[in-house]
Design goal:
Layout (H helix, E strand, L loop, with lengths): L22 H4 L11 H9 L2 E5 L5 E5 L2 H8 L4 E2 L6 H4 L4 H8 L1 H4 L10 H10 L4 H6 L1 H17 L3 E3 H6 L1 H11 L6 H11 L6 H24 L5 H8 L5 H31 L2 H9 L4 H12 L7 E4 L3 E3 L2 E3 L4 E4 L1 H4 L34 H18 L4 E2 L21 E3 L6
Parallel strand pairs: 2-8
Antiparallel strand pairs: 1-2, 3-5, 4-10, 5-8, 6-7, 9-10
């Protein structure tokens, strides 16, 4: 299967991160939309670590082994801050580099920080993302899910699942969690789409980033005078020393991560279940499988094309290969989560698979903060979707489903589905 929206090759000068692998490493095999890129899978079968050429001619190390990836993600010799390498920073287009290195834009962006700065922000946010708080959100998540299903059923017997369900459900949840007005969702979703496009021009990225920053600055200013029961207000109350720049960057990071990843897991996960009808039937007939099925879908789909990405601060030996200091390390989570040395029948979707460790949420100090919330959303959404929409099926040939091959986060751009008349 190929995607009608797949992006063509771009000149390296437009590559905002100078980290693009040649197309041969990212193209998925025809008719296999749920599998990792074919070349990465091939490398994974050959061994756990490989030196590869990037699109700009630089070299990087691609890690495809599960055991090796877990060790590297916990290794303090690997940095999340690629700007610690002046060589790599110089490869970023100047108009982007100046902005990305500006203190105002770096403040609070804990995703690209190392200890002790990362530790400070992580501790603050862990207090907001407690398992207890996420479980308390479950009734509200259920209400949001059923409300959107009610609207879909009331409108007929078909819909595009992405705008009707997969995107609005996590968007509304993260809006409520952060204290963002839901009526503003279209505004930030459009900008997020631009920021996550692999083929976006530097000018588009700069404009979208500036607009999103202004949007969040206004929200932070309002929260400082109108505290409420939301995460952003909680940060302001528990850490009054946080600057506006820190709050803006933290909130933007959580907003983007909080709806893009879960939305694409819901849409691509539904597509995968529809293409595996026996597994769909097992899950529909036994809702107690839902928790494990979510973990299996996370393992099986692994929707981030490439990453996490790290910088070596020293020489690091991995499976007999020495990766030099100041090198880029790219962890191929889609291949790692199908490592036959870790998983039995790794290329099969098995919703009743005994729960196993996967790296869809990362590992180590940067493991996803919102993973418990994502689990709650997916468990409720898949359970209710299959329970309410009898006879759920694709409303177009599978080969015509437009894949998000042009985005940093993989998934589908749309997913037209149909179902039986529930009033009969």
């Amino acid at each position: 299967m190929t995607s009608p929206t797949a992006s063509p090759e771009r000149p390296p000068s437009q590559d905002r991160l100078a980290l693009r692998l040649p197309h041969q490493y990212t193209e998925r095999a025809p008719g296999r939309p749920f599998d990792p890129a074919a070349r990465q899978s091939e490398l994974g079968r050959q061994g756990p670590v490989h030196e590869v050429a990037l699109g700009d001619g630089d070299r990087a190390w691609l890690v495809t082994g599960h055991e090796q990836a877990r060790a590297l993600l916990a290794d303090p010799r690997l940095s999340s801050d690629r700007f610690r390498s002046t060589r790599l920073a110089a490869k970023i287009p100047p108009e982007l580099r100046e902005r990305m290195l500006a203190p105002a834009n770096r403040a609070g962006n804990f995703l690209t920080m190392d200890p002790p700065d990362h530790t400070r922000y992580r501790k603050l946010l862990t207090g907001q993302f407690t398992v207890r708080r996420m479980k308390q959100l479950a009734p509200r998540v259920h209400e949001i899910v059923t409300g959107h299903l009610d609207a879909m059923i009331a409108s007929g017997q078909s819909a595009d699942l992405v705008p009707a369900f997969a995107l609005p459900v996590p968007s509304l949840v993260i809006c409520e969690l952060l204290g963002v007005r839901y009526e503003d969702r279209a505004e930030f979703q459009q900008r997020t789409s631009t920021l996550l496009r692999l083929d976006a021009h530097v000018d588009e990225i700069v404009r979208a980033a500036d607009d999103q920053r202004a949007f969040m600055q206004a929200l932070v200013a309002r929260k400082r005078t109108e505290l409420a029961d939301d995460l952003l207000s909680g940060l302001i109350e528990t850490a009054p020393d946080l600057t506006d720049d820190e709050l803006v960057n933290i909130a933007n990071l959580l907003l983007i991560a909080g709806h893009e990843t879960t939305a694409n897991m819901l849409a691509l996960g539904t597509f995968a279940l529809l293409e595996h009808p026996e597994e769909l039937a097992r899950l529909r007939d036994d809702p107690s499988l839902a928790d494990g099925a979510v973990e299996e879908l996370l393992r099986y789909l692994s929707i981030v094309h490439l990453g996490p990405i790290r910088l070596t601060l020293d020489d690091v030996e991995v499976a007999g290969t020495t990766i030099p200091a100041d090198s880029t390390v790219i962890l191929s989570v889609p291949v790692i989560n199908r490592d036959p040395r870790t998983y039995q029948r790794p290329d099969e979707l098995d919703v009743a698979r005994p729960r196993v460790s996967h790296l869809a949420f990362g590992h180590g100090i940067h493991q996803c903060l919102g993973q418990q919330l994502a689990r709650v959303e997916m468990t409720v959404a898949f359970t209710e979707l299959l329970r309410r929409l009898h006879g759920l099926r694709l409303d177009l040939p599978p080969a015509e489903v437009p894949l998000r091959s042009d985005m940093l986060v993989y998934g589908v751009h749309s997913l037209p589905v149909a179902w039986d008349d529930t009033s009969a």
